[in-house]
User: Which sequence fits this backbone?
């Protein structure tokens, strides 16, 4: 008797190999006339094959449905996508059930402290065991190269000294 077997290949593109056996010739609804075909449906699709036994002249048709589960729609974002070196930034994702971050974090949020501009990726898995990936870039602005000078390093008590800061846009002086 003619039968159809299906095997699933979970790589970058979901593919299934459909193999018909038990007949001498085959005709698929895809137009192919070989015993095995490889398909990559984007939606649930039914494939039909007709097989012919050359000796008896009998034919049989069999249908095989490949169910395509939807992938989750993942979105990634940061509480502050622009930071200074080493500052903690919370990156978050939504749209899935389980999350796995490129920095080793898990859960819908993780805290990162990049020293340079870094792109983080998150893989989200749905309750149907389908996965998608999203990325978020955290831009790290360089720290200013600040220096301070004094008008004099030797002075008498009560004598005014002028300090000058360079290398930044704004300054906050701390004196005691």
Assistant:
């Amino acid at each position: 008797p003619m039968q159809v077997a299906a095997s699933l290949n979970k790589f970058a593109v979901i593919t299934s190999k459909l193999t018909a056996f038990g007949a001498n010739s085959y005709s698929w609804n895809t137009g192919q006339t070989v015993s095995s075909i490889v398909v990559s449906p984007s939606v649930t699709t039914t494939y039909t094959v007709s097989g012919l036994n050359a000796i008896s002249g009998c034919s049989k048709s069999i249908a095989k449905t490949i169910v395509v589960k939807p992938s989750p729609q993942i979105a990634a974002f940061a509480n502050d996508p622009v930071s200074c070196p080493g500052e903690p930034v919370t990156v978050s994702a939504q749209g899935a059930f389980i999350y796995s971050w490129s920095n080793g974090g898990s859960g819908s949020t993780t805290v990162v402290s990049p020293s340079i501009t870094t792109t983080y990726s998150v893989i989200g898995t749905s309750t149907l065991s389908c996965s998608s990936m999203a990325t978020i870039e955290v831009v790290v602005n360089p720290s200013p190269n600040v220096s301070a000078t004094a008008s004099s390093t030797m002075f008498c008590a009560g004598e005014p000294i002028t300090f000058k800061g360079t290398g930044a846009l704004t300054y906050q002086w701390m004196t005691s």
The longest strand covers residues 131-140. The mean pLDDT is 86. The radius of gyration is 32 Å.
